[in-house]
Automatic annotation (TrEMBL):
Annotated signal peptide: 1-21
GO biological process: lipid metabolic process
Keywords assigned: Heme, Iron, Metal-binding, Monooxygenase, Oxidoreductase, Signal
GO molecular function: heme binding; iron ion binding; monooxygenase activity; oxidoreductase activity, acting on paired donors, with incorporation or reduction of molecular oxygen
Protein name (Swiss-Prot/TrEMBL): Alkane hydroxylase MAH1
Species of the source: Vitis vinifera
Amino acid sequence: MGPWNWPIVGMLPMILLHFHCMHEKYTKILELSKGTILIKGAWFANIDMLTTSNPDNVHHVLSTNFSNYPKGPKFRRIFNILGNGLFNSDFDEWRKIRGLAQGFVNHKQFHRFMAKINHDFLENKLVPVLDNASQQNLVVDLQDVFQRLMLDATCITATSYNPNSLCIGFPEVPFLKALDNAGEAIFFRHLVPEGFLKSQRWLGIGKEKKLSKACEVLDHIVAKYISMRQEELGKGKRPEENKDSFDALKYQLTETEIFGTTPTNKYMRDAILGLIFAGQDSTSAALTWLFWLLSKNPSVETNIKELLKSKLPVRTCIHPDTLPSGHKVNSKMKIVFSAYAMGRMTSVWGNDCLEFKPERWITEKGGIKHVPSHKFLAFSAGPRICLGKESAITRIKSVAAVILHNYHVQVMEGQFVTPKASIVLHMKNGLRVRNKNTWP
């Protein structure tokens, strides 16, 4: 049985009451509703959301009937901080932007540059910070470490500039705080009526106030990077740059034959901010949960360490449609995929879906078992599948391998680990750990 649909306010009381644990609540509701349910908003707000964890529905929307499900104007209003970049665009505009972005990530110089960044940041940023924490016997927030590492690495990839947020002492970083506040506010926008958000903006309070300030910080920083890069490239490359330097700003400012003309500052701002959002938040969250899961499954961690020793040198419908589950959708309805719930559905993964079993991804011959992307939405699916998928996986594996090979990570007991209410699955309270060097 689903949540109660109250007169006038719909299911809004349930949303507000469980806002702090929305991922878990949606998982329970979807399990009881065979994977799909219409969440009714307040009658006057027009925010009905068809929420699904059904892989067939996901495949239908993201692949089979892709052209009927653009992101739409409501989605762009919610994510307006990202402007008109790849994340928010539709139709011909999306195809053009994606084609340009694909040219960047497929460029041979991009792969050389990424390899150099990964090596330099692991050796000169991550290891010194963790070594110091180990020598001083300090407890550190591993999520904070990963967020700082990924912010620095992604900014280098996007602009060639390093915010240097990951360093001994962990200084306060306005850039990082702005990204975090923006993620929380965007998640909140999905769940409450537009009128309520307008009231917050008018009064200058709540999540909208935080989002407004976050926009100011992000716009200022990105504009500074663009201006500096334009000036440097206009004068010739910086002395410290080498032939492997190939950031997104340089690509946009120098590949005029591809772009047809020099992109506007607004275009570059949207592209760079979208890249930073995508590359920093999701990768750091994945690494944090990985080490939490390993702490709960020490036998898996032991196996990985032994292996390293041996091997190391949201959518809007245009036309009325019916999903495979039988649910009817129309142009006024928002469709939400619950990737969190999808990974916890017995109907999708079987009765052992809540068990940590890495072997479910491995074939009997030791290869990687193919799982359709519409069953595992970490990198989206269909024509909009993430362009940076391979780069993200490589970076996650590199960071995890360095830490597991060089340190024993001890997760502090007594901390409450739960997801944050945000568009990215960060831990609400971080992950406090103490690390010890493996090698004397």
